[in-house]
Amino acid sequence: MSISAAQTDPRAQDVQFTDDEMIVALGDGRKIIVPLVWFPRLLHASESQRSNWQLMGHGQGIHWPEVDEDISVDGLLRGSPSAEAAG
């Protein structure tokens, strides 16, 4: 009998927001939910600016051109807030 590890696809597919959270859906079915205070540029952005995002590197990252914010999926999985939030 062989046991195989579950295949994961840690690439973003969709991004949604609540009033105080960002929710990133991954290709393998997982969702990452992080507080918006971790990303001050997105926290202070308008709803329209937040909804204008683009996938980078086939989903390895997310870019918001209107607020000049880039977030990597690896960083989200590690639980890393932006340097602006940490400092």
Task: Provide a brief overview of the structure.
The protein is of the alpha+beta class. The protein has helices at residues 40-43, 47-51, 73-78, 83-86, and strands spanning 12-17, 21-26, 31-35, 54-56, 61-64, 69-72.
Describe the structure.
- The protein is an alpha+beta fold.
- It has one domain (12-86): NE0471 N-terminal domain-like (2-Layer Sandwich), CATH 3.30.2020.
- The protein is built from 4 helices and 6 strands.
- It has helices at residues 40-43, 47-51, 73-78, 83-86; strands at 12-17, 21-26, 31-35, 54-56, 61-64, 69-72.
- It has a 3-stranded antiparallel β-sheet. Strands 4-5-6 form a 3-stranded antiparallel β-sheet.
- A hairpin with a 3-residue loop joins strand 1 (12-17) and strand 2.
- The longest helix is centred in the C-terminal third of the chain and has 6 residues, at 73-78.
